[in-house]
Write a structure and sequence with these properties.
It is built from 12 helices and 15 strands. With 335 residues, it is an alpha/beta fold. The protein folds into 2 domains: 3-101, 2-Layer Sandwich (Enolase-like, domain 1); 107-331, Alpha-Beta Barrel (TIM Barrel). It has an 8-stranded parallel β-sheet.
Length: 335
Amino acid sequence: MKLFWEPITLDLRTTFRVAHGASDQRHNVLVYLDDGVGEAAAVPYYGETQEGIIEYLKSVPDLGDDLFDMDAILDKRPAGSRAARSAIDEALHDLWGKKLNQPLYKLFGLNPQNIPLTSFTIGMDEPHVMAEQAKASGHPILKIKLGGEEDEARVKAIRGATNSKLRVDANAGWSRERALQIIPRLAEYDLEFIEQPLAVDDVDGYFWLKDQLRAQRIEIPIFADETAKTSHDVAKLAGAIDGVVVKTMKSEGIREALRMIHTARAHDMRIMLSCMVESSVGVTAAAHLAPLCDYADLDGPLLIKNDPYRGVTYDGAKMLLPSSAGIGVERIKSS
């Protein structure tokens, strides 16, 4: 199989702010294995850059020709860029589906009608700006980025502007003490759950927070994102969290994402399938796993202006998977 790649620049519809910075563009990489395509998202927070991803891809040895021996192929990926390793995995699954002339969801035995509605992300900003964006979005489910001093004011302003379901994501922006202080107050705004309230490496903190909230009879669900990159991480958090966020860019591809989902189910956790800022390539690849999940946060294509591919489509918050072979994406011809 021939491995090659293409750097792309994604222009965002609005400035995207989280607890760790802001951006107007993302510089990703499309990765190809013969006719299969995947995407590597260069997320600065994860230490990924477009240049670093390409340097990693240059180091990948020949992956062989037996695409049906997936584990053997994926084991040949060198250690390094998680995003690049994920893109290779996605391209391999796309090629697999194309060779069998079936969409990926059929090969997994899944029904695309069972995909949960997706949320739409509101990036961090001044409370009134976020409220205006929430109201203008018209989406029934909103994911609110937090992690700053005005977090309660942000949630209060948005709740005053919309009746949409709200989820919040602190992006590891709170200390233990800050989390314990603010979560009971945020629970008053009818939130579905709170995502990644603590530092990435603070596994013990999640057990501590669970005990503290239980003592106060605060029952808002807590989900882990950055702290849970693999199925092993999910198992370590059993008993401390209510749910896990699965992203192919964290798990190094669809293969491990599927393991994360099954591990979470074995520990009675709920699952949200999510994405980075990605084009229709990466988001569509992930969306084939969405029927296995309780929640979806797959709004990447809605956040960008210059998507190079056509894939999953949106009818409001409802996602529709393409029925063509593989992950089902199609290149958009330049005008």
